[in-house]
Amino acid sequence: MTDSFLLNWSTMAVSLFNMTLMFWLGVSILLNAEQRTAGTWIAGGTLLTGGIFFFSHSAILGHGVSYINWGLGILWSVGVVATLIFPYLWYILMYWYAGSKARDRHKRLPALLSVALLLGLAGVILRAVSYFIDRPIFQSIFRYHVGIFNVPVTAFSIYLLGCIALSIDLLRKSGRGNAHSDQISDTARQKAGPWLIAASLTLLLVSGFVAWAIFWIKLNAGTQVLPNRDPYIMKTIARFDLIINLFIASMIIISGKPIVSYELFTGRALPRKNFLHYWRYVVVFGAGFGIILGLMLSILESPVYMTLISLTLVSLFYALFSWTVYVEYYRFVNRLRPLIAGERPFDGLSSTEVDIRTPFYALCQQTLQVHIAYLIPFGGLFPLIKIGLAYPDPDNTYDRPLTDIFGERVPNRIDHYATVTLTPLDPDHHQGARWAVPLWTQRGAEAGALLMSDKINGNLFTREEVETARLICERLLDARAIDEFARRLMALQRQKIIETQLMDQKTRRALHDDVLPLIHSAMISLDGRSEADGKSNLAISLLTDAHQQISSLLHDLPTAPVRDIKKTGLINALKSVLKNELHMEFDRVEWSISIETEELFGKLPDLIGEVLFSAAREVLRNVEKHAKSTQLDKLPTLSVTASVTDALRLIIKDNGTGSPGQREKDKLVGGHGLALHSTLMTVIGGSLSFESVPNRYTQVTLTLPPISEFD
């Protein structure tokens, strides 16, 4: 340490900052690796070696270079060894990263550098052993560490500069061809190349400063030991140290960007967005921690205060980190809201089809941020959807065959979920699309594909973005398929209703116009026989019973609802049901429906009107079966109310005994009749609700969306 407070503080702060970032990067690479390849271990080891160096460097700065004991002697040794190992590991890392083509011209260099490193380490060990044997212990430790400058300075400088210069040469020739890469890794490598070259150039500058500092110290220090140096020399060494630390800090930030943004050494096909966010938090934490703790180390001497301050800083930064995580979570939810809060499959089924274009466009604009995207259905969903979506031009539909996207075989669902990869495409042959994501149904069948261009900002897609896009697009295709499937079922149901009504009318006409006259003629013929016998009387009796049963059946058959709804309107059709079909007597029937409301109900589409009328008629039939007056000497009262305020509501209420228990309620609403009509009401976007208070009333409410949704 020097007599300059600002210089001591700055050097300590930068050293702590470098130590924090290098340890975090090294450990994160090893822990987050999907496949721990050789590059993963080399990258993690390189950064951890740098972290170990700055750990020893910070400890030595805290005690001062003139203070020597056994512990600091070990730290000096560790720092010297890390200084020799780090440039070698950096070159080996770039050698692995550059790819096979760039390695062709460096086949023998790793072996030569390995020999140089081993010779350097052996020289350091022999020098240390000789000093420990020949000198008093403390002086030997000190002179050993100063003695690194007595190791051939030229050889060390050449070794240091050579490792970094050769790394730059590898990066300059790097390209595709790494055995561990795929298409997306090659893209990441191309984008990360300039960052790693900049980091290596910064290291080359650091190596130059280190060599210059070594020669300057060797030139000015002579054979003196560091404790006896004058303040000018010590302050100059401290300035060299600060400048070198600042350059190394720049190198860490520059190299950290591609490491976390493209996950070069974790073996993941796609980077994770959270990894980049955490890196930013660590940079802020390291800077704040280094500045505050460096200041405290420069002005405080008590270890108790240092421990308390360190714990306070860690707690404070962890609280801030937790807060930022929650803020980011809510931002993520807000970005997803327009994607997952779209129209539900059953909403608006009666009018327009489910809108999947709006959430798809929101996905392309806000989450993926792409120029072009296509949502293409195929497989089991194709007969239900057929036409996909295109962004931003809805008319620019994708018309290439499926085999042009994924080849002869669509990627396996389980394999894709495990790796979350993108299938590369040729934009010239796929209408501007650069990447493809396969989509599946819930059961794992092929559902479609999402095709998209590169991002507008040129960055890579993150793992979270691809997973979100895949899930949202699968949901959109499912919603559109469910909507179309329900529409087809409704069309079939409507056709079935019409056919049933026609058959009922035909049966009624045949019985009334053909069968009954024949029976009546047979009865007259038998009755007019001159010689009536017992058998004739029996036949006449049987024919009379058959005639009466058929007449009763014709009387009980319901009238065709479609004709009544179209001619008289829905409300008048219900009045006709109450008058002609129900045989129960009421004390009074109250119709609380205005003329305007009745006209609005009459404007409902045919299908909606049929479903609503059938449900209301079934409710009236249940009223006839279950309604009983609470007073034995009085008949029940029935009221029918309609309103069109925020929705179309038809309320049927009686003041009968109500439902005495859950069993009766289940019997009323859970029967096959009302259960079917409740389902049909849900399909057209409405609902059927039941409310009963024992000995007071029973009320059934039929609800539909506003009339504007059916225009």
Largest sheet: 5 strands, antiparallel
Tally of strands: 10
The N- to C-terminal Cα distance equals 83 Å
How many helix segments?
Answer: 23
Structural class: alpha+beta
Overall 3D shape: elongated
Radius of gyration: 43 Å
What is the correct CATH architecture of the largest domain? Up-down Bundle
CATH topology of the largest domain: Rhopdopsin 7-helix transmembrane proteins
Q: Percent of residues in helical segments? A: 55-70%
List the uncertain runs: 134-149, 176-184, 660-672
Please provide a written account of the structure.
- This protein has 711 residues and is an alpha+beta fold.
- It has 4 domains: 5-299, Up-down Bundle (Rhopdopsin 7-helix transmembrane proteins), CATH 1.20.1070; 357-486, 2-Layer Sandwich (Beta-Lactamase); 490-556; 561-710, Histidine kinase-like ATPase, C-terminal domain (Heat Shock Protein 90), CATH 3.30.565.
- It is built from 23 helices and 10 strands.
- It has helices at 5-32, 38-63, 70-98, 100-103, 109-134, 137-146, 153-172, 183-221, 231-262, 273-299, 303-340, 357-368, 382-385, 403-406, 413-419, 463-527, 534-556, 561-568, 570-580, 595-602, 606-626, 662-669, 672-683, and strands at residues 373-377, 389-391, 423-424, 435-440, 446-452, 588-592, 637-643, 648-654, 687-693, 697-704.
- Strands 2-1-5-4-3 form a 5-stranded antiparallel beta sheet, with helices on one face.
- Helix 7 runs antiparallel to helix 8.
- The two termini are 83 Å apart.
- The model is unreliable at 134-149, 176-184 and 660-672 (pLDDT under 50).
Main features:
five-stranded mixed sheet, alpha+beta, Rhopdopsin 7-helix transmembrane proteins, 711 residues, five-stranded antiparallel sheet, 4 domains, elongated, 23 helices, Beta-Lactamase
